[in-house]
Amino acid sequence: MAAALGSTTLRRALRAALAGLALAAAAIEPGAGAGPRVQRARAEDAWFVEFESICAQTQDAMSLTTDELRALVSRCDRLKPQIEGLDPSRRKVYVKRLQQCRDLYQFVLDTRGQG
Length: 115
Prior knowledge:
The chain has 115 residues and is an all-alpha fold. It is built from 5 helices and no strands. The protein is elongated. The N and C termini lie far apart (86 Å).
């Protein structure tokens, strides 16, 4: 009896773990069957993809062309209003980080103009 009880408990625990993994995979993997909550979360994080794309190029700022730098500054300016719509704690962090990226690109542009 004890072995049967342990086996049943183990099966239930295994089913619960698999269900949890399936839910986690659905939240991570894009797919046609994604629920509205997951789709909304992805849409809300579109700003973050753009943020990462913009700020990922800071280490290469000196090797970018003038046109590329101008485009990045423009993208920063377009992204800022989206970030300002976030909750206060995330807004404070990401507005500051975006401004630092923009300032670096603008600084490189300005120094090229002086040289």
